[in-house]
Amino acid sequence: MTQGEPKRVAILGSTGSIGGSTLDVVRQWPDRFDVRALAAGGNWESLLAQVIEFRPRIVALRDAGAARALREALSVADAVSSPPPVLEGEEGLREIAGGDGLDLVVNGLVGSLGLLPTLAALESGASVAIANKETLVMAGEPVMAAASRSRGELFPLDSELSAIHQCLRGNPEKAVRRVILTASGGPFRLRSGPDLASVTPEEALAHPTWNMGPKVTVDCATMMNKGLEVIETHFYFDIPFDRIETVVHPQSLVHSMVEFVDQSVMAQISAPDMCLPIQYAMTYPERLPSGVRSLDLVATGSLTFEKPDLERFPCLRLARDAGRTGGTAPAVLNAANEIAVEAFLAREIRFDQIPGVIEHCLERCVGHPEPTLENFLSADGFTREEARRAVRDLRSRAHARGTAS
Ligand SMILES: NC(=O)c1ccc[n+]([C@@H]2O[C@H](COP(=O)([O-])OP(=O)(O)OC[C@H]3O[C@@H](n4cnc5c(N)ncnc54)[C@H](OP(=O)(O)O)[C@@H]3O)[C@@H](O)[C@H]2O)c1
Question: Is the bond preceding 156 in cis, omega lying within 30 degrees of 0?
Fold first, then answer.
């Protein structure tokens, strides 16, 4: 990209919550970005509307049937005179991510399938703005190694990691004493432990402060989301686990903090809106005006902080333990969590059974101390099978008792 030319961007997961906010940033700065490629899972109707608006040169859908439907719709769409090629499958996502001539790939995919496209983008020399935290949790070492070999840079999109990135700007990393990640506490912060057994998917999907996709919303409700971010922070900033703390901050205005060796604490504070960390990463090192609402601290009144309750929300502890164990343990944690959340949303297991499925997999799946990329991928695969077995066992036990699971 030469000075003054728009950044050539690919957006993976363009039909999701992060994808939608990324396109809002593009709408805000149309001269700065050229949307070259878009990719999603199966929502071809939304992708069709995005093709009409943003005119990408190539698109991909993971689902082959949806890709066929999009090709048909594009062939008869009056608004599109020369339809872009529509790739399909995981291969299609990787091809989009590693495509020639991209400056920036925004990864807003959900789940571990974000890993290989991230590596493909970094290997091609593009920068990657990554919301897909599962990638760094699953295979932090190879991803950070690929980022350091790449001509491109890796930028975090998670609001907490973006906050840390912003606090560290202009400060030497060796001056960091600890980082403090904030968590909203989710919708069940004040619910008693026994009451968590009756939580429905609808209740878990009603996040008090953020509007996000279903998987990350359930992760916030179990506090696994914070656990995943602890691991992400460890890999991205190369900070030991005992210097990463978490506090519950229900107002979701302080997005995270860094304490330096002189005991000075820097915090990044703003209204909770993902457009801000996304725009920060997409326009880095510039800072531009955003459409995010300005903070009125007087109207806000008070900012509160609490200790997370690891008894009621054991996922945070499980994530820390898996992070400290290292090797493939975080990949096992991540895969087990993906299956457990899927099973909860499908009403196959109860909300309070999610941590049990993860713990079972962490005990059963033997970790690899110095894993290669292949080892991370196979840990992901075999954990999914083990987690599905654990879900089936829970269901049959519930049926045997004659109760709904
Ligand atoms: N949302 C947030 O505010 C937020 C904040 C911080 C971090 N994150 C992280 O960002 C990632 C995305 O979150 P989100 O909330 O944007 O999720 P989301 O709304 O569920 O969107 C997920 C995107 O990924 C696509 N996708 C889903 N399954 C797929 C598959 N099997 N193959 C290919 N594409 C697939 C979806 O396509 P279809 O729509 O076609 O299915 C959609 O475009 C997650 O890792 C999350 O933890 C999100």
Answer: no
Through-space distance between the first and last CA atoms of the chain, rounded to whole angstroms: 55
Spacing, Cα 134 to ligand 1 middle (Å): 11
* Amino acid at position 232, single letter: E
In the chain, where the domains are located: 7-157, 158-313, 326-405
Closest ligand 1 atom to Cα of 18: 16
Mean pLDDT of 212-224: 96
CB 252 within 8 A of CB 272: yes
Claim: this prediction has a pTM higher than 0.70 = yes
Burial class for 149, CB neighbours closer than 10 Å (0-12, 13-18, 19+): exposed
Distance in angstroms (rounded) separating the CA atoms of residues 322 and 314? 12
Name the residue of 216, 315, 338, 339 whose CB sits within 8 Å of the most ligand 1 atoms, as the mutation to test its pocket: 216
Q: What is the mean pLDDT of residues 353-370?
A: 92
- Percentage of the chain modeled with pLDDT above 90: 91
Which residues fall within 8 angstroms of residue 157, CB to CB, at 6 or more apart?
18, 106, 108, 129, 130, 131, 274, 277, 278, 281
Say if ligand 1 is within 6 A of residue 345 CB. Answer: no
| Whole-angstrom Cα Rg for the chain | 21
| SS3 category, 246 | strand
pLDDT surpasses 90 at 77: no
**Residue 1 has which token pair?**
């990209």
Classify domain 326-405 at the CATH topology level. Rna Polymerase Sigma Factor; Chain: A (1.10.1740)
Of the candidates 124, 127, 100, which has an alpha carbon nearest to the alpha carbon of residue 282?
A: 127
Ligand 1 center to 41 CA (angstroms): 9
Token pair belonging to 49: 């509307």
For residue 244, what are the β-bridge partners? 179
Tokens at 394, concatenated = 């829970």
Would the CA dihedral through 93, 94, 99, 105 be positive or negative? positive
7-157 and 326-405, same CATH topology:
no
Q: What is the 3-state secondary structure (H, E, C) of 155-188?
A: EECCHHHHHHHHHHCCCCHHHEEEEEEEECCCCC
Phi/psi of residue 218, each to 5°? -65, -40
Domain 7-157 is in which class?
alpha beta
What tokens were used for 41? 């899972």
Best residue for ligand 1 mutational test, from 50, 93, 96, 110 (most atoms within 8 Å of Cβ): 110
